[in-house]
Amino acid sequence: MKKILSLLILLSAATLVNAQTKHELAVAAAVETLNKGILNPDKALLEGIASDALSYGHSGGKVQNKAEFVEDLLHGTFDFLSVSTSNQKITVSGKNAIVRHTFVAKATNAGTPVDLNIGNLLVWRKESGKWKLVARQAFKIPGT
């Protein structure tokens, strides 16, 4: 019985160490909402998730403000077919959060197939009770 109790305590402790806080979970949900908006662009969703101060940097060097980011997803030549993230790490500090992950997508650019495997750094800020994207910088992952 003592062995079972000890095992349960150990498993509970391990779970707590790996558990995300409620703020980290909320930021992760905001990232998922952003990805859904990238995959299926919706003006209200994109404008709602982005801060008015948005600086959205692409891996090729192009930087967009909020209006340009929304317009490009709605009417640009890039069409995302699938989007996923991996290796995500979220750090929350007060009303700010930093997210790093690998962004993997299949898309077309003016009809030409494109496979993306890039790194992303996202900065989120809690504005009026909601996590809003303030900055995003994509970068090429060395060796890919």
TrEMBL record:
Record keywords, A-Z: Signal
Keyword Phosphoprotein part of the UniProt annotation: no
Domain of life: Bacteria
Signal peptide from the UniProt entry: 1-19
Coiled-coil features, chain-numbered ranges: none
Domain DUF4440 residues, every copy: 27-133
Keyword Signal appears in the UniProt entry: yes
Protein name from the UniProt record: DUF4440 domain-containing protein
Organism of provenance: Daejeonella lutea
